[in-house]
UniProtKB/TrEMBL annotation, chains A, B:
Residues 82-308 form the Fumarylacetoacetase-like C-terminal domain. This is Fumarylacetoacetate (FAA) hydrolase. Keywords: Hydrolase. It comes from the Bacteria. Residues 1-77 form the Fumarylacetoacetase N-terminal domain.
Length: 325, 325
């Protein structure tokens, strides 16, 4: 099942069921007005939404043409966004860029931060930045959305709480981050609003690419129309999603609609390219002695997308332009 | 105006107007079902709620008796919780306890972290902890709630965005925090769900104690029935609320219903006592060579309250017991 949110003028938009090929959409206010409402009562809502989905795919009901530019983020306001950093080749390279060490504990204790969840950008909303000297970078990630997760959930138990998946562009302001991290309190200014992909999908949509814990497909990032990276999201992920959920729920429950991010998808093999600019800059320093690639400029575009083994877009594409605000 | 949320069985509870003396309450579903709904349209909702409040105080309408044990947090689910750490005597003492330095930048650059906002505890909900070896501590704070705050708001502009105030118990697990802070990514496991006071109030309820930026009243914390501290929230606050809001909004807008915390209220003069246990422990180390006071134990109770100059409770009391879960 695939779901999206129409930007209908209200704060949370209008929930829609979208067909498998991302061509047609059906608003479903008779079931739930918003994705959060559906997640609040997922056990009873999901079968009703699934029926609409099957009818839409089967041509038994007619949808309206899906216009991606009219979509809000599937969850425009969320109550929680916990972003892991599960690909240690990303962690290692970003730390190298900051001149920071890679303590051995990071192999067993996940990095995770509480992100701003009050405003997710839609898939085509611009990245608005007041000053391009902030060092604007994209970060392409996979994210899961849970139902209510009890405190102390184990990784094995956490699997059944993964209800939906999508992609996120976790935009980062590289030049503001070092001083924030030095304070220890995480990111406030260094991470502006993140963008979500056009649709969220249930795990069954991924077929064999979803093993219950990781997504075994490449995640493609394009910068100004050129492929920048296509690392495999199923490789080199040191902590899988159930482990990340368990980490987040060690001392508190997580409410339905919690987003858990993978962290920037990154492979040890750098020939796959990168899901963020800073990793390329670090490799340039190592290979050539200096970073050559600049961060994003006003007018730059980033596109993030994941295709299935037949080349069909699973979540639709995040496609954002950077603008001055 | 004072507002509370009845725990009516739904996820967000039911909004109620409460009289000035915290005796009577009137559910107001005809105006807004929840506090978030009211905050979403505050400019039009606030006058309607204020009318009910005046009628209730004037005895023109009858309320039901306010039962604090039936209250949920005023905002049980919130989209954003940004907690500052504006009292530097607290910061300095907590850092001493961890053996950490106090860099001079902390006098000009506020400490702030993104907290978990998906589940605020009601004023009498227990503090549930799986293991008392986590080092359970209370932290008594003042918090403001904003309407929509635009990106880049200045401190002067931020004043008008403060719509409501209340108290928070920002429960902290001291023995989990050092390793989290060392990672730089802020608190995930070290800060379980925080509790809010019974009611939120509009700034005018504070009279001359509110200067538009700080609350000039003592905040009293009782531990197992004994006064533990009564520092003045208006003294030694290095960054006032408008400055904290401006800091949080430097690179992103903040949505209506954002909570901004003061950090643990603390005075340089330690004879006023403390709003958290760790500060007393540090002073014991300095004065006596070793920390004597333990952290909270199962069955312990903490009470946090602020009275006006006539001794009337402004927000009602947070009163929590620590339990094993």
């Amino acid at each position: 099942m695939k779901l999206a949110t129409l930007d209908s003028g209200s704060r949370d938009g209008t929930l829609m069921v979208v067909d498998r090929d991302l061509q047609w959409a059906v608003p479903v206010p008779q079931i739930a007005n918003t994705l959060q409402e559906a997640l609040d009562e997922w056990a009873s809502m999901a079968p009703k939404l699934e029926n609409i989905y099957q009818s839409l795919n089967g041509g038994e009901i007619e949808g309206v043409a899906l216009e991606v530019e009219q979509l809000a983020a599937p969850l425009r306001r969320a109550y929680q966004w916990l972003d892991g950093s599960a690909y240690l080749s990303h962690v290692e390279r970003v730390r190298k860029a900051r001149g920071a060490e890679m303590p051995p504990s990071l192999w067993t204790d996940p990095l995770m931060y509480q992100g701003g969840s009050d405003h997710f950008l839609g898939p085509q909303e611009p990245i608005c930045v007041a000053d391009d000297a902030f060092g604007v970078d994209f970060e392409a990630e996979v994210v899961v959305i849970t139902d209510d997760v009890p405190l102390g959930v184990t990784p094995a138990q956490a699997r059944s709480h993964i209800k939906l998946l999508t992609l996120v562009n976790d935009i980062s302001l590289r030049n503001l981050i070092p001083s924030e991290l030095a304070k220890g309190f995480g990111f406030v200014q260094g991470k502006p609003a993140s963008a979500l992909a056009p649709v969220v999908v249930t795990p069954d949509e991924l077929g064999p690419a979803w093993d219950g814990a990781k997504v075994h497909l490449p995640l493609r990032t394009y910068w100004n129309g050129k492929l920048f990276g296509e690392p495999d999201a199923g490789e080199d992920m040191q902590f899988d999603f159930p482990q990340l959920i368990s980490h987040g729920a060690k001392t508190r429950s997580l409410i339905a609609g919690t987003l858990i991010g993978s962290g920037t998808v990154s492979n040890v093999d750098w020939h796959r390219g990168y899901s963020c600019i800073v990793e390329r800059r670090v490799m340039e320093i190592i290979e050539e002695g200096a970073a050559v690639t600049p961060f994003m400029s006003y007018g730059d575009r980033v596109r993030i997308e994941m295709q299935d083994s037949q080349g069909r877009s699973i979540f639709g594409a995040i496609e954002q332009e950077m603008r001055r605000c």
